[in-house]
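Try it yourself: sequence plus heme C, in.
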Amino acid sequence: MGDKQNELSFGNSYPPSVSKLQFIFFTLSLGWRSSGVMLKVISVILSMGLGVGASSLAFAAGEKPSCTTSKCHGSIAVGKVVHPPVKGGECETCHVADEGAKPEKSADKSPEKSKKSKLPTGHAVFKPLSFPQANETCLMCHDGIAETIKKAVSPHSAVVDSGCTACHDPHHSAQGKLLKVEVPKLCFGCHDAMETLLKENENQHPPVTDCLGCHQPHGGANRTLLKEKFTDKNYLPFDEKEFALCFSCHDAALITKETVSEETGFRNGKRNMHFFHIRQAKKWGGRSCRVCHELHASKGPKLIRTKTVYREFEIPMKYEPNTNGGGCTAACHTLKKYDRLKPVENKKGR
Ligand code: HEC
Ligand code: HEC
Ligand code: HEC
Ligand code: HEC
Ligand code: HEC
Ligand code: HEC
Ligand code: HEC
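Structure, out:
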């Protein structure tokens, strides 16, 4: 039988008679695909009480009896990343036998019965493992994640209401970290509004190709699953710590230095306009980045918003860049310009 022999070998953890049956199920399934004639052939074999030659049931050389080397669950432990307990064949760490349930009787050897029967004799019936039991099982070993979830200031509904398997495959994966699909596709699966936003706003903040630059999937010490602090206020006294998220990638000098050269493009001559808006504005307190910037994507350049907020009002904002600077009109003020080479004298006041 050559290669066929290997294909048709089954786990010898089951009694040989079962293996024969398995062979028959397998052949049957082929039969369904090819022709009904196959069924007849099988039933003849059965009625003759003939099994399959012992050699066709043997393991291939070096193959150990287990759930994954048999034809039944062979695909569960293959892939770029295989979960260590699966690799170790520890299926029963997670899958618990349902004592009350009876495995389907395979003693009935009629072809009709065999067609329906899924489990070989001796195979326990396992309880389905779904949320929330699945989460509890995962957290048994992953106590670090359990801690994280318990402490998260903004728990991710995906973790606490859908469960680990919304994002992770418990057995194996082609992605790192056992992810079902890669980020950001994984996130778009539930956050379709974010996917639409990114499609419709072509100027994207470069890190949005990997949401994990800013968000922690399991939650953490900051609101909105943020990796670092980013204030939820629009107007506040300046404190570098309030913008820790931004400064984990950007040099804080773009805000903190009053006089600049290359640190920021938002300068009028050497006067740092970031410093002016964020640190110096005394009347209302300094501004947060998001008063001017979108965080994920914008229609126009530099992630500048088309609308901003002041108190409870949403107000239009018109930003127009040019080669050496730009200008902005908003309810905050009439058109004010900045130019990096030839500093602009704007009229005083609003
Ligand atoms: C780390 C825990 C864990 C281990 C170890 C594990 N499983 Fe699973 N298994 C699960 C979870 C959770 C589900 C439910 C998956 C879902 O809902 O998406 C599942 C589902 C299944 C299913 C039904 C759905 C499917 O994916 O085909 C089979 C069959 C299965 N497991 C077989 C096995 C076998 C065989 C082993 C041992 C080689 C094993 N499992 C080891 C957690 C585990
Ligand atoms: C919203 C999707 C999502 C859910 C739900 C989720 N995870 Fe994750 N998990 C991720 C992503 C994305 C990573 C990769 C993080 C990285 O690379 O920085 C990850 C990483 C991990 C890691 C690797 C170690 C680490 O912290 O990077 C473990 C372990 C883990 N998750 C376990 C769990 C467990 C247990 C649950 C359920 C309690 C769970 N995850 C629920 C998305 C999720
Ligand atoms: C019997 C213990 C055990 C159970 C139960 C368990 N894991 Fe794991 N898991 C491990 C070990 C060991 C590793 C490898 C070391 C590590 O990364 O912590 C691992 C690694 C992981 C990783 C990281 C893989 C990578 O590529 O770095 C993820 C994600 C993960 N497990 C998710 C889960 C999920 C989801 C469940 C529940 C369905 C679960 N684990 C249940 C023991 C377990
Ligand atoms: C299984 C569905 C699901 C997946 C997958 C998922 N999320 Fe969520 N996420 C939710 C739900 C539900 C909420 C709560 C409702 C909302 O704000 O949309 C939420 C909320 C959030 C929030 C706001 C949290 C807050 O406190 O306001 C962020 C940020 C977030 N998800 C990021 C991500 C990222 C990043 C990924 C990919 C790694 C991801 N999500 C994957 C379902 C999911
Ligand atoms: C540069 C950092 C950064 C990256 C990268 C990022 N986010 Fe966000 N995200 C934020 C911040 C900051 C907020 C809080 C919004 C605020 O302060 O107004 C947020 C809020 C959210 C929210 C809550 C709803 C909302 O719009 O306010 C969701 C959902 C979300 N992000 C999903 C994602 C997804 C999905 C990705 C990847 C495609 C992603 N984010 C990439 C910084 C980021
Ligand atoms: C994970 C890293 C990362 C984080 C966190 C991050 N950024 Fe960025 N950001 C980048 C990169 C990379 C660029 C492109 C190179 C550059 O302009 O510095 C960029 C560019 C920008 C730009 C210019 C966009 C353009 O179209 O030219 C703005 C504005 C910006 N970021 C604002 C922010 C704000 C506000 C925060 C905090 C909420 C933040 N960034 C957090 C990585 C990050
Ligand atoms: C008053 C509006 C305003 C506020 C508030 C603001 N920015 Fe900007 N930002 C701009 C403008 C306008 C540009 C475009 C400068 C140019 O290239 O002409 C810019 C450019 C940037 C850039 C691109 C690199 C550079 O400096 O030219 C980054 C990064 C950036 N801002 C980050 C931030 C961060 C982080 C915050 C909050 C701590 C912030 N911005 C607050 C208006 C603002």
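One thing you can check immediately is this: Residues 16-34 form the longest helix (19 residues).
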